[in-house]
């Protein structure tokens, strides 16, 4: 047992040893650095620390070995002011004290108001901050480069900015971002993106990185299609363009298909690129010019520049300068236009022929104009000889004299001469008849575009006496209309509907469209948007009941595989089955009057009502003429007959008589109108009990007056209409 003289028990000695060891460890750590000044104030130095004897007395006051309680010992501390300050339990707290023995929390004793306070003694705090990702920074930077390029179009600036940006390992993401941003913009930006990729290839971006960029694009095609509905088609064209520009190797198409998931948009895009673009004849030219051409010039602008350089050449005679100008155009796929215009100019200016022949020879020998482009230019002139003869009567003989010269000088392939005479055979009488027919119908079509007189055109065609060549007329009609304004396109569609009723069979029209689609690629060389225009003509023919949807399948089946004409038929089918297709297609070129079918029907009914209520025959005929829809006059006949039955007013027959006498409504339109009424007699009988008797009397009167075809039978079936259902 411990005595009051200061002896410690074994338990107390162990407690003291543990406390001292802990204190020494903390003191050693504190000695490694100067103590905080705020903790060593003069006032605190004047106070004595807690002495060992005090500590011992604390423990001494606790229980003894016998387990009895020791008397409570009160610890008192006297301050410098003489006041007695009671010390808290275990020496903690109190004025002028250092706190508990093991209380070493420095933060609690830092006083920011202390004159000796040093902020450097504050404990460190970890502050969270965002770590920037180099790839994210790169992506943000290239967006501004691309936006600026789309604004100013300067390839050199974009290449320099990308080079200065560094981080070349991220260039595949530049390719992906450039194409994906262009996909959601106009054709101008798409073309600019392709041009920039071609400029950066190998110089700034390695071939492997461009391939990797396109792989990233194809892998994200499903996500792109959410915002860009036709993403697969647009991406397919970018892939095809990259292959044509030698930015991607042709083997890329095969290789990438193995790594893309089945049924993915990316795989679909690659397959479209392979089958629709890269496998088509003349695919390089078609792909290059899909978005306007690599020179950012439209086809019309290029043609204008070609015409200007040829005129300057004829004036100066500088062959080298002319070749330099042709080279600077940068449209090697369009050099056939140079050949064509040069030959036409030689026909117009006989004195210029030697210069023109010398220029073409020089361009061929330099390799500036390829053999295929040269032959294509000659072919195009040959095909347009019928039109040229209207302005240059001797065009055919002049052209035939140029061909042997070109072949003998070695800059035109001899196979051209064989092809033009069908392997050397003398043209037959049928060939001469076809050429004569083409010359005649071109004149007839031009007159129609000026006069808008359908009956006169029909009479002119009948006078030619060549119904077996009707399909050639259709091809000429639509080809000439495509190269003109919407007015002529609308007139061609209206004429086609009238011809189908009057003299053309469905087979004639199908054959004509097949001929058009077979030559669509050649037509596209002159008319940039030929494929879309042909699709609209096809769709319009179906809407006007000239063709039925099944005829489109027949036309597609007669076309060569993988030709652009098949894609045109597919496009026409999509137009037909789209929402509100009838109204949209009828108005695609202004719709004649710009009305929908329902609007036209309303106007017909109103003019007939006005006439029935006391109108003048001549005024009613003029209103029908003002409708401008001769292919729809059978609707006038139908509504006039129905109104005559309902109103019991036979004045309508006088109107029909006048329309027939003036040639306003043809016999075929009249017959078709009667046939449509006959088909609906069962429904009419519900409202008009004597409808059948009335109709038979009207038909008999029309037959006696010669309004309708003699084959029309008001009771049974007739030659012009299907049996009533």
TrEMBL record:
Comp. bias regions, Basic residues: 72-86
Cell compartment(s), UniProt: Cytoplasm, Cytosol
Amino acid composition bias (Low complexity), ranges on this chain: 32-56
Any single GO BP term: regulation of translation
Stretches the record annotates as Disordered: 32-89
This protein's record includes keyword Ribosomal protein: no
Molecular function (Gene Ontology), one example: ribosome binding
Any one cellular-component term (Gene Ontology): cytosol
Entry-linked SUPFAM superfamilies: ARM repeat
Keywords associated with the record: Cytoplasm, Nucleus, Repeat, Translation regulation
Domain MI: from-to ranges: 137-258, 301-422, 436-557, 599-718
The family this protein is said to belong to: Belongs to the PDCD4 family.
PANTHER family: PROGRAMMED CELL DEATH 4, PROGRAMMED CELL DEATH PROTEIN 4
Name this protein carries in UniProt: MI domain-containing protein
Highest classification ranks of the organism: Eukaryota, Viridiplantae, Streptophyta, Embryophyta, Tracheophyta
